[in-house]
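Reminder: ligand-aware prediction takes two inputs, not one.
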Amino acid sequence: MATKRDFLTLADWSHEELAALLDDAARLKAELKAGRPHPLLAGKSLGMIFEKASTRTRVSFETGMFQLGGHALNLSGRDMQLGRGETLEDTAHVLSRYLDGILIRTFGHDKLERLAAAASIPVINGLTDTYHPCQVLTDLFTLRERFGDLTGMGVAFVGDGNNMAHSWLLGAALFGMDFRLATPPGYRPDGAVVARAEEIAQTHGATLSIGDDPAAAVDGVVAVHTDTWVSMGDEASEAERLAAFQPYRVDAALMAHAADDAVFMHCLPAHRGDEVTAELFDGPRSIVFDQAENRLHVQKAILVRLLAQPHE
Ligand code: CP
Ligand code: NVA
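Here is what comes back for the chain with phosphoric acid mono(formamide)ester:
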């Protein structure tokens, strides 16, 4: 009997397992480009529950399932009985009788954990308030594709200590990287996530630094990553956020502190003129659309790993 696995945070998976996923993603990408896609998930169905908006996650997972010979159902949380009070646990039990996997994008990470605990099929985190592991695994893939081995690689994340920053802390720790986070003092990452990342970093020889100086964070790195200043769910504090984050805009002057061949990264959607200047976002250093494309390849690797085996 196969034991089901979930993909809830990067820390649930070992470095070796994540590295194997990156290798699988590279192979799947090459096979797709060569016109040789394999129907590894023929007959399999993925249910995708979205309680927040999405362009990339929804389209790349749906297309990925199609390319693998399977099928994806787009389920809006609002239109399900979940939106009228049916419990997450009952929803998980029912979906487990129909489907082979569930992707969910929701608010509290505890909701994802409850769904995964009750489901007998694999559950994938399509973003919660606390983590965005599919995006950051893709970011790691994109950097490895461009610069090679991730060990010791310098990456800065400038902006909000949010779900992206949390997943980056874990991902950088697991891959032994030199990761620097610069946030305004009031927007630091969650202490428990930092503690977990520090623990993992020690095992893998990673260095993690967290401060409030963007120029110091960016010094010599090969990639500068940012994200929106107002994540989904943070809309009520938009005005104070826009004020607090002004010194954290990524622009050409900040990039000048990075390595000569450093790239600009963003998970998207972006807000030109806020977290990044239009000139940088639309310029030659920007690899944001490579990141977006690679969601497809990396998530296909995750799907194959989780769904290719029958689950009890
Ligand atoms: N980066 C990302 O997850 O994009 P979507 O919100 O469009 O899915
Ligand atoms: N931090 C952003 C990421 C969007 C992909 C949010 O949670 O809205």
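Residues 127, 132, 162-164, 227-228, 231-232, 267 surround norvaline (ligand 2) (CB under 6 Å). The domain at 10-131+294-307 is CATH 3.40.50.1370 (Rossmann fold). We will return to this case in the review session.
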